[in-house]
Backbone:
């Protein structure tokens, strides 16, 4: 590495950095259960509650144990390039490289909390194949149910509709691509599951209250 960042990967590490004054005036994150406490104890820190890791100058913080891997891969990418980071991720058998602005509590994990084993497997498959046909009809066929029965069972077990869940995953994936790449929305939209840039824009406004361009610029400024 060609620099010496201050970073610790456990959920309590941000408190050590805050006590040392290294987070004063900086953006940082920690485990979602501890964000309010960090903000109380370190009021000069800009606590980012919805991020899995944050980089502000020489200081890097992450949300917990597994997000330390995401932070480490981000460091590798910053120093050695994306190709090397992807190769390391492959060696670790990771699902994907995640940008720091990914939410700590994923939609897929939330949906799986009270779901049956069959529904949990289906949700995991949906998250892994965002560009495939994720219509109610297609999902119902995979679950060996009628579309009406599937829609009711999915809503009962995940507390959301299939359409809302799919859109949430598409937006999360698109958000990561917007921050990790310089791709235009014409390229981001189909790779995230959206049928058009228009559909991507409408979904961003529903979920984030802003356009995809505004999301990208605001996140990169912080």
Residues:
């Amino acid at each position: 590495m060609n620099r010496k960042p201050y970073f610790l990967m456990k959920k309590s590490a941000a408190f050590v950095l805050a006590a040392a004054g290294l987070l004063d005036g900086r953006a940082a994150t920690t485990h979602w259960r501890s964000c309010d406490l960090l903000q109380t104890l370190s009021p000069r820190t800009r606590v980012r509650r919805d991020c899995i890791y944050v980089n502000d100058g020489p200081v890097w913080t992450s949300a917990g144990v597994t997000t330390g891997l995401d932070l480490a891969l981000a460091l590798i990418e910053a120093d050695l390039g994306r190709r090397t980071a992807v190769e390391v991720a492959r060696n670790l058998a990771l699902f994907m490289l995640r940008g720091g602005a990914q939410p700590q509590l994923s939609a897929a994990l939330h949906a799986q909390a009270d779901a049956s084993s069959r529904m949990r497997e289906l949700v995991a498959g949906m998250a892994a194949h965002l560009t495939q046909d994720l219509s109610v009809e297609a999902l119902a066929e995979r679950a060996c149910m009628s579309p009406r029965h599937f829609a009711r069972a999915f809503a009962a077990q995940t507390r959301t509709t299939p359409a809302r869940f799919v859109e949430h995953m598409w937006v999360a994936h698109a958000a990561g691509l917007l921050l990790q790449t310089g791709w235009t929305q014409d390229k981001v939209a189909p790779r995230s599951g959206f049928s058009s840039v228009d559909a991507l824009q409408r979904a961003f406004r529903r979920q984030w209250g802003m356009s995809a361009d505004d999301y990208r610029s605001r996140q990169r400024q912080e």
User: Anything to note?
Assistant: The chain has two domains: 6-91, 106-222. The CA atoms of residues 50 and 80 lie 27 Å apart. Strands lie at 6-8, 27-28, 46-47, 53-56, 59-62. The longest strand covers residues 53-56.
